[in-house]
Amino acid sequence: MRPTTNIAVRAARQAGSVLLRYHDRVDTLTVSEKQVNDFVSEVDRAAEQAIIKTIRKAFPDHAILAEESGVHAGNEYQWIIDPLDGTTNYLHGMPQFAISIALMHRGKLECGVVYDPLRDEMFTADQGGGAYLNDRRIRVTEQKNLRGALLGTGIPFRDQRYIDNYLGMMKSLMRDTAGIRRPGSAALDFAYVACGRYDGFWELGLSTWDFAAGALLVKEAGGVVSDIGGGDRYMDTGNVIAAGIRMHGEMVKTIRPHLSDNLKA
């Protein structure tokens, strides 16, 4: 791993320790609502500060984009941090949440880490260096079509503008698949595509910190990440499809009839 990836791994483990410390006593936490159905607690903030402290110690001049504390100015290197992806799961005792840390340089993803502290699964990727799960090389599946495929998704819960589009996509995709799963952590959904647990994934309305690290994992594992129309604007739109090459094409083709003009843009 590159030195930057090693630091990201160290930061993720520090944040993981914070999350595990409070996991069995979430009833003691102070929780506030950032917007409708979008929650934050002092654990999110403490985990984020642990990550930032670790990064700042190693790279004091790097910029940071963090979910809870926003933009921290710096040079052309920018860390993109989600200290607790799956906050609602965490607060309800659902064992599906993760830490996501990515590094971008001049608009290109350089490294990505997704860490599941409950299972001690560390997903890592370096640009051009492949993707790994706990030091084992991982690859996307070779699934060619929807028949028998297992897909992941995220059901819109904040912005309901495209709910009818989304339900149309789900109806068309589920006809031939072996099933569709909605566990509740986009960072882990991308990681699961990268390691072959899912054949594909799609979601609308993600934030950059939800999937920056995961997108690099999928690409370095031999997969494709695109916006919902099959283009390359996924970092801007937050409407994404991730899968192996052939599976991605099938998903784009199936989803396309359900795109309104707003989603095509």
Counted by DSSP, the helix tally is 9
Number of strands: 15
Major sheet size, sense and barrel closure? 8 strands, mixed
Query: How far is it from the N-terminal to the C-terminal residue, by CA?
Result: 37 Å
What CATH calls the topology of the largest domain is Fructose-1,6-Bisphosphatase, Chain A, domain 1
Q: If you average the pLDDT, what whole number results? A: 93
Structural class: alpha+beta
- CATH architecture heading of the largest domain: 2-Layer Sandwich
In angstroms, what is the radius of gyration? 17 Å
What is the approximate shape? globular
Tell me the β content.
25-35%
CATH class of the largest domain: Alpha Beta
Spatial arrangement of strands, main beta sheet: 4-3-5-6-7-8-9-10
What do these coordinates show?
By secondary structure, the chain is α+β, with helices and mostly antiparallel strands. The chain has 2 domains: 3-137, Fructose-1,6-Bisphosphatase, Chain A, domain 1 (2-Layer Sandwich); 150-264, D-Maltodextrin-Binding Protein, domain 2 (3-Layer(aba) Sandwich). The protein is 36% helix and 28% strand. It contains 9 helices and 15 strands. The protein has helices at 3-22, 42-58, 87-91, 163-174, 186-194, 208-220, 234-237, 245-255, 261-264, and strands at residues 31-35, 38-41, 63-66, 70-72, 77-85, 98-105, 108-116, 121-126, 130-133, 136-137, 150-154, 179-181, 200-203, 224-227, 240-243. The strands form 3 sheets. It has an 8-stranded mixed β-sheet, with helices on both faces. A 5-stranded mixed β-sheet has the order 12-11-13-15-14, sandwiched between helices. It has a two-stranded antiparallel ribbon with strand order 1-2. A hairpin with a 4-residue loop joins strand 7 (108-116) and strand 8 (121-126). Helix 1 packs antiparallel against helix 2. It is globular and about 50 Å long. The model has no long low-confidence stretch (mean pLDDT 93).
